[in-house]
Amino acid sequence: MSRYRGPRLRIVRRLGELPGLTRKNTKNEKPPGEHGTKLRKPSEYAKRLQEKQKLRYNYGVSEKQLLRYVKMSKRVKGATGEVLLQMLEMRLDNTIFRLGMAPTIPAARQLVNHGHICVNGSTVSICSFQVKPGDIITVAQNQKSKKLVEAHIESPGLANVPGHLELDKKNISAKVNGIISRDWVALNLEELLVVEYYSRK
């Protein structure tokens, strides 16, 4: 099951800032649990596991889905870690979040699942749908859908729209102009450690 329903700030305390999971900030910097105050040097496996968990929780994908993305990225020409991030960033639910149409990725997923989002004029209800350069993303032509998006588009979860996306706030539509570059990925992550984690799978 890909959706995490537990306490989100607990995950943020453990893994660090995850803009796709929640907009809330925690005042407590210590890791969760009764042993959170004890500082231990993490093992090499623990470091790789932590980086992998950051991807899982930020993008809201299951272990099975993430493993599939890693295998797909290995078959594509280029740095495996960078290709993996590009695949996750080009998911429809993440694209809706990056455009500011939803406050978090789980909220964007709900918009897509409920049929409020259209790609190239057709309603798409699959969150993992990969948007491509040239795709036009719009909101369904009904008042309920527009109100849901308008409430969030003025105060987006992230300050800037990535360079590969073009947003038209007036018509509530967007165009995908290219593939996202690594510089625009809003996550403090060492993707090479994620690839190393799955290297023995």
UniProtKB/TrEMBL annotation:
<dbReference type="Pfam" id="PF00163">
    <property type="entry name" value="Ribosomal_S4"/>
</dbReference>
<keyword id="KW-0687">Ribonucleoprotein</keyword>
<dbReference type="GO" id="GO:0019843">
    <property type="term" value="F:rRNA binding"/>
</dbReference>
<feature type="compositionally biased region" description="Basic and acidic residues">
    <location>
        <begin position="26"/>
        <end position="41"/>
    </location>
</feature>
<keyword id="KW-0689">Ribosomal protein</keyword>
<dbReference type="Pfam" id="PF01479">
    <property type="entry name" value="S4"/>
</dbReference>
<keyword id="KW-0150">Chloroplast</keyword>
<dbReference type="InterPro" id="IPR002942">
    <property type="entry name" value="S4_RNA-bd"/>
</dbReference>
<feature type="domain" description="RNA-binding S4">
    <location>
        <begin position="90"/>
        <end position="154"/>
    </location>
</feature>
<dbReference type="GO" id="GO:0015935">
    <property type="term" value="C:small ribosomal subunit"/>
</dbReference>
<dbReference type="InterPro" id="IPR005709">
    <property type="entry name" value="Ribosomal_uS4_bac-type"/>
</dbReference>
<dbReference type="GO" id="GO:0042274">
    <property type="term" value="P:ribosomal small subunit biogenesis"/>
</dbReference>
<dbReference type="InterPro" id="IPR018079">
    <property type="entry name" value="Ribosomal_uS4_CS"/>
</dbReference>
<protein>
    <submittedName>
        <fullName>30S ribosomal protein S4</fullName>
    </submittedName>
</protein>
<feature type="region of interest" description="Disordered">
    <location>
        <begin position="15"/>
        <end position="41"/>
    </location>
</feature>
<dbReference type="GO" id="GO:0006412">
    <property type="term" value="P:translation"/>
</dbReference>
<dbReference type="GO" id="GO:0003735">
    <property type="term" value="F:structural constituent of ribosome"/>
</dbReference>
<keyword id="KW-0694">RNA-binding</keyword>
<dbReference type="InterPro" id="IPR022801">
    <property type="entry name" value="Ribosomal_uS4"/>
</dbReference>
<dbReference type="InterPro" id="IPR001912">
    <property type="entry name" value="Ribosomal_uS4_N"/>
</dbReference>
<feature type="domain" description="Small ribosomal subunit protein uS4 N-terminal">
    <location>
        <begin position="3"/>
        <end position="89"/>
    </location>
</feature>
<dbReference type="InterPro" id="IPR036986">
    <property type="entry name" value="S4_RNA-bd_sf"/>
</dbReference>
<keyword id="KW-0934">Plastid</keyword>
<comment type="similarity">
    <text>Belongs to the universal ribosomal protein uS4 family.</text>
</comment>
<keyword id="KW-0699">rRNA-binding</keyword>
